[in-house]
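[job 0412] stage=complex_fold ligand=adenosine-5'-diphosphate status=START
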Amino acid sequence: MLKSSLQRHARLGNLARRQISTLVSQQIRSRPVVASCQRLAQSERQVVPLRQIALRLYSQQSAAAPSSARTDDSPASIYNVTRFEDLTKLGVDERIIRAITVDMGYDTMTEVQSLTINPALKGVDLVAQAKTGTGKTLGFLVPVFQRLIASDSSLASPQHRMRASSEDIRAIILSPTRELAEQIGVEARKLARHTGIVVQTAVGGTRKREAMHKMNREGCDVLVATPGRLYDIMTDQSTRVAAPRIQSFVLDEADRMLDVGFADAIREIVDILPPIREVDRQTLLYSATIPRDVVHLAKSMVKTDNFDFVQTINPDETPTHARVPQHLVATKGYENWFPAVMELADRAIEQSKQDPDALPFKAIIFFSNTATVQFANRVFKSTYLGHRLNGVPIFDIHSKLSQDTRTRNAEAFRRARTGILISSDVTARGMDFPNVSHVFQLGLPPDRDQYIHRVGRTGRAGKNGEGWLILSEDEIKEARYRLPGLPIKPNQTVKSATHVPGQGTPDPEVAKYFDEVSRAYERAPRDLFAATYNAMLGQKFGRTLNVEAIVRLLNNWCLNGLRWEQTPAISPKSAKNRGLDRVPGIRIGIDTYERDDDRRGFGGGFGGGRGGGGFGGGFDRRGGGSNRNDNFNSGSRFGSRDRRDNDPFSRRINTDFDSRRQPSRASF
Ligand code: ADP
Ligand code: MG
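[job 0412] stage=complex_fold status=DONE, emitting structure tokens
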């Protein structure tokens, strides 16, 4: 029995290999999938159910075959779908397809769409990993919508909208951030346009009552939400929101959703949904990165006897897009950061004027904490870059802004032809701002995955883009630990990176950037820098970075860059609590700063006023940013963390999924 099964698998393996050689000879684009299948054929024959191999094989065919290659309706060819139009062969409702091909104007599927829509339509649970910007959203929306219509044909007709009920939600899509939930909501509404499916969003930071009225009035078939708000409305009896017949449950940015900050919330949500044995539902997990520590949680989410995993990233390949060159600029100190960004921005703006094919300058600048975002926003806005007439529009997004402002700024940046978004990690994942030409990361990213997600804001949907990581020289060693196996190349072309203020005569261009930034520092409210100082002292130090080095860097920035007479004080209590009281260079005391009336929502005196100088803007580590899941409670009661080596699921995931599998060292 076992023997014959193995023989069958081996035959399929051979078939897979034959497919592969054909595909290689055709020089198709989908090499990562081929590699994935190859491994499958060689090493996983014993552990992967036959049906899954077959599925992958069909999937692989579908990704690889030229779109016009097959037109017959033979059983094999029904999987061979790479054009949206051909989804009719798989029974997808014409109204869904019309929204994609006519309204959105997409003809050919991306690889991850081609590979996931087929199996998802068949009802299996899915774990899917594909690079950022490759269209994962439609990859899960299409099967979710089709499943709804297939089970209730009245949902296909726009007339259904009159009867939709918020007490009968059929699909829930969860996102880690509010901005991403809103964005998925917009795409889902576009897809629903010719059908009767009603899509609603529920995110934290908005008026719950108003949103509830809207849901009760208009009904809701598909709800896109952040976990905190979803749990809140589903457990509040007065909201009249329920999902007794839920059919689809999707986690976008799945690894983040299963990470410690969110895992408990997700489990609580799953607990209030009807049990799968009573109401069958499909679970779809999509992400660009899947680190080792969430693998077991992923397992506890899907039906392990009826799931498929699709991976369009070869584990040996870099998880960022090859067409996004990634530069590392090592600066003398933090005081070089803003002048370096000015220089690079000027260079890019000039280049886009010279070269009509170059993208207009549209940049995101990421910082790992909110306070630095607020400070940088003020500084850049008062340089010529932010000039109302001659500069570019500058926006900020972080968790201290009201949700209305966050949504407005995201929308404005999305629409902007050129501009700068200064952001904390709340926009690092999933956000699809079109035509972003540059992603700047200033300071150490919290970890490798976060670096990858931030870079993924550029080079989306086949476009070009550039990544720039700007670090002080003292941070490079730590960056090597955090960022192995990525195509980051040192770049020495930025002249402002190496100038030491007060030493020597700089090149006139460098002097221009430093002078411009100096003037802007003077106009920025002092408490903003004090908060930045505090927040950067609160960052994760890692293996090689020590607090003394950070204090030195911050003090130099303060004294030589901002030209303050003394560094911001840390209150005695805070210094003691944070172990900073004996660190050389820390000034213990209480500072008070004048209130800046321009800013809403930021109380006066920082240090003293805040009862001991808390962590300024807070460390916005992963961009949950917005709800009760912000705090990183350790440990989760959800899932088990011990790894069982004989578990086929784990074995497959460990070898195939782990985005932190770090075979190589840093490239810089
Ligand atoms: P991901 O979730 O993989 O990061 P998104 O779903 O946000 O990617 O999609 C990235 C961009 O590509 C979006 O603007 C989306 O509308 C566009 N897109 C999606 N599918 C296609 C397609 N088949 N052809 C062209 N563009 C597409
Ligand atoms: Mg996405």
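Residues 13 and 42 are 7 Å apart (CA to CA).
[job 0412] exit 0
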